[in-house]
Amino acid sequence: MQLLYNILIRITGIGLKISALFSSKMKLFINGRKFVWKHLNKTFTTQDKIIWVHAASLGEYEQAVPVIEALKRDFPTSKILISFFSPSGYEIKKNNSLADCTIYLPLDTPKNAKRFVASLNIQLAIFVKYEVWPNYLKELQGRGIPKMIISGVFRENQIYFKPYGKFLQQALFSFDYIFTQEESSKNLLLANGYKNAILGGDTRYDRVYKQRTYNNKVPFIDEFIDGKTCIVCGSTWPEDEKAIIDYINQTKHDIKLIIAPHVVKENHVNEVYKQLQVPTQKYSQLSSTSNIKNTQVLLIDSIGLLSKLYSYAAFAYVGGAMGNTGLHNILEPATFGIPIIIGENHKKFPEATAMKQAGALIEVANDYELKLAFDNFLTTPQTCLNMGDKAIQFVRSQLNATQKIIHLIDEKKLIST
User: Fold this and answer.
1) By 3-state DSSP, what share of the chain in percent is helix, strand and coil, each rounded to 5?
2) β-pair partners for 362
3) Could you give the 3-state DSSP secondary structure of residue 52?
4) Mean pLDDT across the stretch 132-151?
5) Cα separations (Å) of 156 from 95, 191, 267, 342, 360?
6) Would you state the pLDDT for residue 291?
7) Whose CA is closest to 318, among 261, 389, 247?
8) What is the pLDDT of residue 213?
9) Residue 233 zone, left/alpha/beta (φ > 0; ψ -120 to 50; rest)
10) How far, rounded to the nearest angstrom, does the alpha carbon of residue 229 sit from its chain's CA centroid?
11) pTM of the model
12) What would the mean pLDDT of 101-107 be, rounded to a whole number?
């Protein structure tokens, strides 16, 4: 099975190079990996003690942030290496201030894995949520380097728990410790013979809760809102935007609406702009002379603002679950104590189910249900406030996943001081 896996990895590598000829995203994926070894050799010596954190993409990076911050605080002599698999994570966070070095992870070939692990003095390897790379894990295992998964989520239909997935299950079970987000994932691992499953919770709660301590002011937003009720629609996709645009074009409520599309490319933002029949401006075009008070909709065509923008909302709509692209981060608005509306396709996101059960979230299946949910919050503000209180209470109840991870690292002396 390992031979077949290695053949498939090589074929995948060839396929990616071909697809890079036609896809800008795949071009980033391929070209970004050309300089990995040079970057590593320039940054680290063989004497440097390294904590390696691997995140598939941006969401997993955000989950890792509170853990990395705690590691930097408690183990200041160690250096931090962050690797990404996806361009959507690396290209946004390649210049982050947490890591001593941030790279694309080379493909999981035996040669790459051996070179990577052999050339670095890795003390601890932390993989976020679910990525399992057998060759890297084999090299770490062979050198006795401790390794763990944090904020893991597992389901019975995953390949690890299928009869034909034993090779990948062995790779998964080679982790010394696996911290899971919820009880069901822990129980699934235990039922399949893995002994070191720990219910740790989701580190994203620690991450988003800290956002409350930052300066969340965004230029022009107070002038735009002008004391009116504001709705923030974050990380929206076309199926979300259709329902939102239909609503704002016909509503009689005197409200302000902020739309932050997931895709901020100019052609997509322009398409949303053309469909809006109310006074609308793009954030990038605002200036001190803009007539922003008479604007009803603000289109956010820049990245990095959304987590702050939620602080201005009476309630939020979070995109991705009206279709099948995947629900985006609902914890960012929840940490500001506001209720959340999402689509119904969120079964793979345990935080959505938990927040719905806590009474902090409403799911909608179509344009009509979205209209009812928006109108309900706008006409009964106390309902909105009550659900918002439940949202922040829920976030607070889920804190301290980071503390559990750091405590185990200390207790087991996984990092030398």
Assistant:
1) 50, 15, 35
2) 341
3) strand
4) 97
5) 37, 11, 40, 25, 28
6) 85
7) 261
8) 94
9) beta
10) 28
11) 0.90
12) 97
